[in-house]
């Protein structure tokens, strides 16, 4: 459900004309939260060798990147050439395919940057864990170095690189932070589960207040742009809001729509921009959605539920899965 909520926030932040204060708040935590969730679900023991990790993550993340990129090209043509007025030639998307960074070269769907970046972060983090397990370098020392390098890169450089290589050190830090927070939760689960609402509600309120304050004070950050402004405030906003949302969802019954979006987040990530731009450029809905960006986010999220079901059921290769791999959505 937490991943599904993060996905809903991604969709809410992407319509054209979304209010700047809403955009600033969402950007302050939504991508750090995604990487923290990925870190929380990572298991070093799953892979015996670096090559095994590399192969598995390539299948899970790079294959979907390739297929979704190819699907998004004709979707872009429909949305921006047929329904819109863009004159960008399709061959300009070829360099973007290899760069995986729309700040380096044009892409039909800039949101796809997340997949290669997550691939790099995962294999780097596995390598750091291996160094720690073999006694060569402590994981704490490696992560401290990653954080220092990340701060240096986001502070002193502003040249975008292919595959967001300049962003990876800070992303790895968020990835590791997610695993550490989840490990802490597992150790203190009984305490959290038995916590009184009189304690939990004020704690959540304080975390949200700190997170919103830090977000407002810091301004809009960009993980894919490696732009955090004041890094301390970026950490406060991303961590406080993410932890508060996790604590809230822990106490709620299963919300089917969030569970489904979380399980199918890869398809949601890859398809939400083409769907959103279709409604924004469709003559019948263009005026309504340009004036009310919240509605395009809501309609996009709703449309993605049956669309994702159909893709997973009948066209699983679009998200890099073999036929027969369909998994039914969790029941409410």
Helix content: 55-70%
Mean pLDDT: 93
Cα gyration radius (Å): 20 Å
Structural class: mainly alpha
Major sheet? none
Overall 3D shape: globular
Number of helices: 15
What is the element string, with H for helices and E for strands? HHHHHHHHHHHHHHH
First-to-last CA distance: 12 Å
Strand content: under 5%
Per DSSP E runs of 2 or more residues, the count of β-strands stands at 0
Uncertain stretches: none
Any overview of this molecule?
The chain is an all-alpha fold. The chain is 69% helix and 0% strand. It contains 15 helices and no strands. The protein has helices at residues 2-13, 20-27, 30-40, 50-82, 93-99, 114-133, 139-156, 168-187, 189-193, 197-218, 231-250, 256-263, 265-281, 286-291, 293-314. Helix 1 runs parallel beside helix 13 and helix 13 packs across helix 15 (293-314). The longest helix has 33 residues, at 50-82. It is globular and about 55 Å long. The N and C termini lie close together (12 Å).
Any chance you could write out the topology, listing elements then pairs?
Layout: H1 2-13, H2 20-27, H3 30-40, H4 50-82, H5 93-99, H6 114-133, H7 139-156, H8 168-187, H9 189-193, H10 197-218, H11 231-250, H12 256-263, H13 265-281, H14 286-291, H15 293-314
Short recap of the structure:
This protein is an all-alpha fold.
Please supply descriptive tags for the structure shown above.
332 residues, 15 helices, mainly alpha, single chain, 0% strand
């Amino acid at each position: 459900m937490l991943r599904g909520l993060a996905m809903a926030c991604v969709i809410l932040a992407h319509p054209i004309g979304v209010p700047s204060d809403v955009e600033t708040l969402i950007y302050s935590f939504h991508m750090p939260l995604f990487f923290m969730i990925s870190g929380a679900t990572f298991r070093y023991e799953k892979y015996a060798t670096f090559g095994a990790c590399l192969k598995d993550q390539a299948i899970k993340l790079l294959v979907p990147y390739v297929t979704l990129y190819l699907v998004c090209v004709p979707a872009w043509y429909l949305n921006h050439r047929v329904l819109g007025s863009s004159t960008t030639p399709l061959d300009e998307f070829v360099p973007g395919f290899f760069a995986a960074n729309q700040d380096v070269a044009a892409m039909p769907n800039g949101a796809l940057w997340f997949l290669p970046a997550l691939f790099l972060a995962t294999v780097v983090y596995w390598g750091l864990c291996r160094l720690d397990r073999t006694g060569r370098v402590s994981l704490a020392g490696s992560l401290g170095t990653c954080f220092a390098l990340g701060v240096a890169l986001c502070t002193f450089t502003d040249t975008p690189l292919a595959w967001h290589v300049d962003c990876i050190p800070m992303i790895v830090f968020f990835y590791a932070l997610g695993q550490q927070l989840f490990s802490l939760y597992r150790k203190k689960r009984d305490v959290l589960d038995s916590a009184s609402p009189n304690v939990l509600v004020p704690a959540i309120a304080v975390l949200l207040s700190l997170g919103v304050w830090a977000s407002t004070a810091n301004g809009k950050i960009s993980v894919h742009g490696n732009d955090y402004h004041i890094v301390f405030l970026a950490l406060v906003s991303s961590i406080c809001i993410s932890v508060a949302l996790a604590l809230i969802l822990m106490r709620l019954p299963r919300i089917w729509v969030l569970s489904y979006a979380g399980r199918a987040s890869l398809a949601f990530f890859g398809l939400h921009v083409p769907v959103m731009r279709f409604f924004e450029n469709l003559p019948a809905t263009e005026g309504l959605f340009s004036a009310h960006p919240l509605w395009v986010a809501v309609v996009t999220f709703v449309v993605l539920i049956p669309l994702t079901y159909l893709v997973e059921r009948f066209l699983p290769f679009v998200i890099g899965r073999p036929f027969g791999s369909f998994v039914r959505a969790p029941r409410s």
